[in-house]
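Entry for 2-acetamido-2-deoxy-beta-D-glucopyranose complex. Fields follow.
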Amino acid sequence: MRWTPYAFSALLAPSIHALLRFSCSQLVIERLDPLVNPGELQSPHLHQIIGGNAFNASMDPSVAPPDLATCTTCTFAEDFSNYWTAVLFFRARNGTFKRVPIKGNVGFEQSQGGMTVYYTPTIQMGKPREKITAFKKGFRMIVGNPTYRTETEAKRFRQLTYTCLQNMNTRTGETLDFPKKPCPAGIMANVRFPTCWDGVNLDSPDHMSHVAYPSSGTFESDGPCPASHPIKIPQLFYEVIWDTTKFNDMSLWPEDGSQPFIWSFGDATGYGNHGDYVFGWKDNALQKAMDSNCYINCPELKSQSITEGNKCAQQQKVKENIDGWLTELPGGQMVN
Ligand SMILES: *[C@@H]1O[C@H](CO)[C@@H](O)[C@H](O)[C@H]1NC(C)=O
Ligand SMILES: *[C@@H]1O[C@H](CO)[C@@H](O)[C@H](O)[C@H]1NC(C)=O
């Protein structure tokens, strides 16, 4: 299954408004998940978290992250949101695991790990501008399901994919499962969230039902939102670049030639790709940006350098070894 991402040059048409693309460095790598396991000082699997330093084992939706945070790893300095995904490991022939490093994207090379984050308004070629409603205080959501191991399951979500980077600019050939061959510049995990909201609930028990995909067509074809979820929200999109290059020697791969990468939740297929989001922009900064015509760089927003963002790191609260050759995945996750 392949997706052809839209070309950015197409977005330069005059009717398009605000597209944000920015870097957020790594805040911390650890086993906490305030959405799925609130309050638990040890979620089942390891995550890389980026964004504001109010990230915690539990995060009260009635408290705005900017009120607690003192810094953010994002280059938009008013963004104290938290964004997280699972962490990738390499499994050696002897069965031990090594965490795969994360590298900065094109233009964001100084980033200490982290992700590239996009907020894309509706693609509306040649049509008048329409209002895009930014996320509100207390909003959170999850896309994807870590228990999925088949293509049929993975297709319940759209656009949770991998790009096998031939070089850092490769943006074609996305797959729903892990690449089967070594990728010369690494593996980019792509996590795109649904773009329609019910307009009422800031969260839901499964952290998903309050958002939906367009009822026909796709986000890229400007498909309409379903009546149950009529409000158009920006498409939130993460790119995470796993620097698999030092594991590209196929003599290190399993003897049957299968690919050696495993998500921290024990998934060797890639179909369990998922991402989490806790909104935390200051006041109406995100809405202001969505209403403006800014493109990638947004002069309306306060910025900081990547090196400044790199300084905003959190101490690991769940103390455990996540580097070195590990005899088991953190949290004792089994590969299955
Ligand atoms: C995280 O939560 C604990 C209590 O669960 C609290 O003591 C601590 O101050 C919080 N840390 C941050 C950064 O909010
Ligand atoms: C397992 O394999 C890795 C990679 O080949 C190697 O670096 C590591 O030392 C090995 N560990 C053991 C216990 O043999």
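NOTE: Residues 5-332 form one domain.
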